[in-house]
């Protein structure tokens, strides 16, 4: 749905984007990860037809952004990292105004505004002036604004920045709901744990260069060698823990075992079958209380990727 | 986008509606209108009294037509001066304000064209000025009772006021698109208004002085006015309200004045269609307005950065991206 190929952009002598390439399939949530100034916003602005690349191609639904920006604008909903609202307009008027700007027929605008306010849970604020809304409400209204013309693709630049925990959770739920509605979503952020829960695809950018991009699991496996398992023993003393560590280390495919106060963290290679490892522990009379895969840590992936690049 | 589509866009422009709604919801809108009407009314009333007193003293009784003409002229000049103050202020923040408020990018990602944005902002700003001018019409009409002003003069004075407002508004809009900050746009807009109102007068005066110096006593021809005067709305208004002072010339004569100055004979070329200063003034103001709007549209369009038909040059990748 979104394709970026060899995108290059310079601001003066500074290279903002250097051969940036990635794709986002239809219906996926793509987490665009990178530190501040890495090139996330520049890439999103090019996709949003607000900036042009010096070289390379960017397409949305197969339409080249540089060749047919008007058609691309019909397909995308854009939410910038910072955006203001107009004074002295109610939430309904605000959405109706942008619906008009996107060419929504006059008779349909009230219904569009009403439905979107319901979607972002701001129905009770429909007659409240937008400049009096809280930051979280404004962000949700901003997301509703990006949806007024029912775009297939959403470009969300740091949608959760500056939000309190509750507002972040609400925003996350909203984005999940939008995926269920069939939208393809590109979301940039440097809050990795949130992206990890939300995204199905991920792309890492640092200093204007793509470090990795693809399906979340694939990227994680490619970067972090081995999966990690958490093994907890019931009423385990020092001796039991030591015995378990030895058993695990001896097992083929186990790369590392770290003993922590109340559990063991085991790094295993791809050839290890979790069930076999659990059966082995039980067989050796170790009372296993819990045995679970530790979700991959996006932060670790990011740190490794950027470290490699810096080296 | 075709010209027709742009015209239709201009008529059904959401920006005009939005700006109108939010402007009229402020306390400033009625206060400014009240002040505007109050000041023009006060000037008219004062002039009426002064004129009446002066005429009573001079002729023993008021001469209604003279009093009416003077009062109308005072109000018209004052209204023009107010419009010169208001128009830049209303339009100078139109686009730079969007940028400062961080709402411009969102607007640029919509389907509204660059022309639609600029046109909407201009119409929205000028609609308020037009509202002020309309609300002042009854005041001007009251002076009609005294006579001294005919309907054509009345209409032309309003046309000049509106065209000056549109011209200054368009200039302000151009600066608003040019500068990041509203303050810079406002200062530049007032500087441009100053050049148009005072600069042309000063230049005209100096040109008149240098070109006609020494010729008055040697030539029987009437003293010619410098062409630059014709660009000045206050001068044009004066020639409309006081026809005796009209420097009516021909198009050829005007062009001769503009490009070659007063000829040695002191007599400008005759023949061809005649032109009045107000016609030249409105024409020049319209030209400036069109150029300013075109400039503002180009600047706003540039903010979108990608233009139809422009494909970025493709460079061969040095190495494939990792982990695709």
Description:
The complex is a heterodimer of chains A (311) and B (324). Chain A folds into 2 domains: 2-222, P-loop containing nucleotide triphosphate hydrolases (Rossmann fold, 3-Layer(aba) Sandwich), CATH 3.40.50.300; 225-295, Alpha-Beta Plaits. Chain A has 11 helices and 14 strands. Chain A has helices at 40-47, 69-75, 91-101, 109-119, 135-146, 165-180, 192-198, 216-223, 238-250, 274-283, 298-310, and strands at residues 2-11, 14-24, 29-33, 55-60, 63-64, 76-79, 153-157, 184-189, 201-206, 209-215, 227-233, 254-259, 264-268, 288-294. In chain A, a hairpin with a 2-residue loop joins strand 1 (2-11) and strand 2 (14-24). The two termini of chain A are 34 Å apart. Chain B has 324 residues and is mostly helical. The longest helix of chain B is centred in the first third of the chain and has 32 residues, at 28-59. Residues 217-223 and 306-324 of chain B have low confidence and may be disordered. At the A-B interface, strand 2, strand 4, helix 2, helix 3 and strand 10 of A face helix 2 and helix 6 of B.
Taken together, the total number of domains of chain A comes to: 2
Q: What distance lies between the first and last C-alpha atoms of chain A, to the nearest angstrom?
A: 34 Å
Q: Sketch the topology of chain A as an H/E string, one letter per element.
A: EEEHEEHEHHHEHEHEEHEHEEHEH
Amount of helix of chain A: 25-40%
Q: How much is the average pLDDT of chain A?
A: 85
Q: Tell me, what's the shape of chain A?
A: elongated
**What is the N-to-C succession of helices and strands of chain B?**
HHHHHHHHHHEHEH
CATH superfamily of the largest domain in chain A: P-loop containing nucleotide triphosphate hydrolases
The greatest inter-chain interface is formed by: A-B, 56 and 41 residues
* Rg of chain A computed from alpha carbons, rounded to a whole number of angstroms: 24 Å
Give the helix tally of chain B. Answer: 12
Q: What structural category characterises the helix and strand content of chain B?
A: mainly alpha
CATH architecture label of the largest domain in chain A: 3-Layer(aba) Sandwich
Cα gyration radius of chain B (Å): 24 Å
Beta-strand percentage of chain A?
25-35%
The end-to-end distance of chain B, rounded to whole angstroms, is: 39 Å
What is the strand content of chain B?
under 5%
Number of strands of chain B: 2
